[in-house]
Amino acid sequence: MFLVNSHSDYRQALDPRDAEILGLDAANAVERHLSFRENHAETPLVTLPALAAEIGVASIHIKDEGHRLGLGSFKALGGAYAVIRLVLDEASHRLGRTIDISELHSSTVREIAGTMTVACATDGNHGRSVAQGAQLVGARAAIFVHSGVSDERVAAIARFGAEMIRVDGTYDDSVRQAARIAEERGWTIVSDTSWPGYERIPGLVMQGYTALVREALRAMPQPPTHVFIQAGVGGIAAAVAGHMAIAFGDQRPTFIVVDPARAACLFETARAGHLVTVAHGAPTVMAMLECYEPSLVAWRILSRVADAFMTVDEDDAIAVMKRLADPTGNDPAIVAGESGGVGLAGLLGAIGDPAIRQALSLDGHSRIFLVNTEGATDPGKYEEIVGLSPSAVATQHTTGASR
């Protein structure tokens, strides 16, 4: 399914709150923060010239977030950043002066962090980031996971010392239970989705994602003309689209949001023109995108700066995982988890449909930007789908990457 943005807010200026969260000064602050992270390194921007030639576009660049901060997902940029910002804010409040990131590991700040508990609901990747952030600063973490989260993903979070709490039902059920229990116990919710009255912390999470956009734009020889990016609640899509809208103004690229057909909450919200919750049906293989209610802040941004919305099917996501693992020509192999290549699935779907291709002005001059949002965060599941282990695919990753 495909639709162009017809919302009354389309092409209006960003809400001032969102412009501040995703603006250039905020992005600079995120990159400064990352400079204090011991295992920080910019992730690769991978070019796929053979695939670009095959589908008839000028270039394809993929930001490979499977390498981010040892967590295998772009989410590493968001949850941990928000936790650290909250600890610094609390320390500043208690000590009566501004506490800089350079003081994060001081005994005084760690003592304050030790009195704090952060909590969140997760499909896997966001919870891992929150748990890592809590461990870094010496805070406690309680992570709520729904019944569809694999044992391997739960174990990957628990290794950071987090308390794991299983919730019957869907991701959205776990969001609600996390919020209720956190309020009862005085914990701080660090969610990557937002709702009325709860916007600042999800805004910090999204702010963390601007780092990958800054890195990619520095590495690209020319700005992109089109961006296809996958969405769960919409945080990554809104962060990329919002920051690019600020950076490029009227010259910003055409931006397409890609949903799983089985959890198309942003697509259906765009169709309705207001926030909607979609019904929970059969689970999607795109586990990190299995969300049924969009983030309030993300929709506020995307209603203004997304140009189109589309969905992809289960087979499309699986085919892209395999295509990236066994690429065209001399293109490098990329390890993309079940949700990682969904933006590329959207691009291929658009190219294959003459009406969509024309609507988006996709042609031989188009420069495409995509994000591989996750590597093999569940290696067993990855090998079951692709037929090769992540390490076997990674050994092919020898050409085409740039920093």
UniProtKB/TrEMBL annotation:
Pfam families: PALP. Keywords: Lyase, Pyridoxal phosphate. It comes from the Bacteria. Residues 40-372 form the Tryptophan synthase beta chain-like PALP domain. Its cofactor is pyridoxal 5'-phosphate. The keyword Nucleotide-binding does not apply. One of its GO terms (molecular function) is diaminopropionate ammonia-lyase activity. The keyword Lyase applies. This is Diaminopropionate ammonia-lyase.
